[in-house]
Amino acid sequence: MSIILPDPHLRKFDSIPEMGPIPPILSDFASRLKSADLRNNLDQYLLNCGTPSFLTTLKNRLSLPDVPEGSSELYNLSLINSL
After folding, report:
1. For the chain, how far is it from start to end, CA to CA, in angstroms?
2. Maximum Cα–Cα distance for the chain, whole Å?
3. Which terminus of the chain is less hemmed in, N or C, by CB atoms within 10 Å?
4. 42 in helix, strand or coil?
5. CA 17 to chain centre
6. pLDDT digits (tens, 9 = 90+) for 53-71
């Protein structure tokens, strides 16, 4: 006995309930990017107008300044989540 599975390419994606409206984001992530002066640089990079050096400087911009010795947090996690 064999089972014939339906062709997934024949379905319309609009009929999938998970593909409905985009859920609202309730946090203000853009304000963290603006305060760290990342918003404009990120927008330019994603629109192919920025320089590739943006990625190399991103690690330094996301690290925390003045990290005490032996600290477990080396990066600004809230900024990383916003990014």
Report:
1. 51
2. 67
3. N
4. helix
5. 24
6. 888 888 888 888 776 776 7
Q: Which residues of the chain have pLDDT under 70?
A: 10-16, 19, 67, 70
- Among residues 30, 35, 34, the alpha carbon closest in space to that of 82 is found at 30
| Rounded Cα distance, 40 and 23, in Å | 25
The answer to whether 36 and 11 are in contact (CB under 8 A) is no
83 falls within a domain: yes
pTM comes to: 0.55
Asked if residue 59 lies in contact with residue 68, where contact means CB atoms within 8 angstroms, the answer is no
Q: Is 2 among the domain residues? A: no
Q: What is the CA radius of gyration of the chain?
A: 21
Please state the domain count of the chain.
1
